[in-house]
Amino acid sequence: MEPWRSALTNYERDQILIRGRPIQVLMAAGNFGDTAFLLLSGRAPTPSESRLWNAILTACADHGPSSPSAMAARVAASGNRESVSAAVAAGILAIGDAHGGAGQQTMQVLAEGLARAEQEKISLETAAEAIAREHADADRRVPGLGHRIHGMDPRSALLFDLARAAALPGRAMGLLQHLQVAVSQRAGKDLPINIDGALGAVLLELGFPPPVGHVAFLLGRIAGIAAHVLEERAREKPMRIRIPFTYDGPGPTS
Fold first, then answer.
1. Number of Cβ within a 10 Å radius of residue 102
2. Using CA atoms, how far apart are residues 171 and 238, in angstroms rounded to an integer?
3. 169 three-class SS
4. How far apart are CA 202 and CA 197, in angstroms?
5. Torsion-angle region of residue 19: left (phi > 0), alpha (psi -120 to 50) or beta?
6. What is the pTM of this model?
7. Tens of pLDDT along 185-229?
């Protein structure tokens, strides 16, 4: 059997290396976010990139008990009192395309738009208008814009400020801002850039591929999911969750 290959981590009797760096050096000098960045990108972040990356993880950490991941985790913890990992896993499994997937989707849309702008020699504004038109024609929602609760997502502007402080190129952020204008004009109402849009644009600026948009959300949100599980176990009785429902199936049959 051929041995597995990995360029991530190696261990010997008295040494653990992550991307070639001794783990005790990472433990003493960095933080968990920086180690995650190193694992995912293959390089250590600069100090300004570290602040930006850790801000992304913090922005994703939690959004209250009504999010699908927190709800699923609490339901599992309510019924399974013995396994923290099972309840946390239930929360993670609730994360997907609709909940936590818009960051990756935004990255894909922006990456395609940037490639189009370069290939066709068009402005970012023109590329954004084309994206907005194509999504409208296909009756598809543009990811990264609007929020079911927030009129203005308080996390987005800060990420852009940190990205500018890190002297990132800015083309992905510029395209998203033009896209926000184009989509809002078509909708006839303001659809602000939400956290998924902001983190998607910023992660592209950092050089990450689209799947990291999903990974970043997972890395941040697992802290919140775990906290909801522990709170449910500590404060609530087992089987306390009752979901109201109305039966609309057939009546008794003989």
1. 25
2. 51
3. coil
4. 9
5. left
6. 0.91
7. 999 999 999 999 999 999 999 999 999 999 999 999 999 999 999
